[in-house]
Amino acid sequence: MNTLYKNTTCHSSQQQGLVIVYQHYHYDIFNSTIDFQLEELNSRFSDEIVELLVLSSALELNDNFISFKVDDIYKLAKKFYSEDFNEQEMYYLRSQLKYYQIDVIHHKSFQNMSTISELCRGLAETNKSQH
Fold first, then answer.
1. Is the pLDDT of residue 20 over 80?
2. Which of 15, 36, 72, 125 has the most CB atoms around it within 10 Å of its CB?
3. CB count, 10 Å around CB of 104?
């Protein structure tokens, strides 16, 4: 990967500088591919769908709930599930999410969970599902 990468041109004056194989793959190939993929994803999904995906990521359990954000989950419920919650339920949802954030996320039994079924089992075992 540290060897010199040569362009296909035969004339050394046309080569734009010394580039090693690692740089070629990392900058020229990898970044171009990522840019292409992002352009394709952006053209296929509307802004509303992208927002739904971003807000839904707040429900991710991995890495000890690092992506859990009360405001994002509240916004998700208010914007995309407004027919499922009345005004009073939205108020309670925010307070319950804050309680969940304080109590469950920092509880030793809930560390390193990665699936909803593990979370449900943990809530039942600790009797936190009653709250």
1. no
2. 72
3. 19
